[in-house]
Write a structure and sequence with these properties.
- The protein is flat.
- With 105 residues, it is an all-alpha fold.
- It has five helices and no strands.
- The longest helix has 28 residues.
- Helix 2 packs across helix 5.
């Protein structure tokens, strides 16, 4: 595969960004490792939870914090309920995983 033909493809862009992060030491080593079986949405929740816990903030309404408000406005009632249930399940599983890492440390 030639670099000239596909120099602006999304995969090449992602690879160059990852390479730049690796070279600059931009990967965060101060956060606990994300569980291996986590989905991308769970990964995002986990990292946000780590940041909030590190800052000493208390989470009062996790649904409002982690839900995409624009996406919620476009969903039907049934889809909205399903989306909220998924977010709450992801939040609970990632909070449990984070609590177990913190307790073991």
């Amino acid at each position: 595969m030639s670099n000239i033909k596909h120099n602006k493809c999304p995969m090449r862009t992602l690879a160059s960004e990852a390479k730049a992060r690796l070279a600059s030491g931009g990967y965060r080593r101060d956060l606990p490792p994300v569980p291996k079986n986590a989905t991308p949405q769970q990964r995002e929740i986990y990292l946000k939870l780590c940041e909030l816990r590190k800052g000493g903030e208390n989470i009062e309404n996790p649904i409002a914090l982690f839900a995409d408000k624009q996406k919620l406005s476009t969903l039907t009632h049934e889809e909205r309920q399903r989306y909220i249930m998924q977010i709450s399940a992801d939040y609970l599983s990632m909070r449990t995983a984070l609590d177990s890492v913190v307790l073991n440390a």
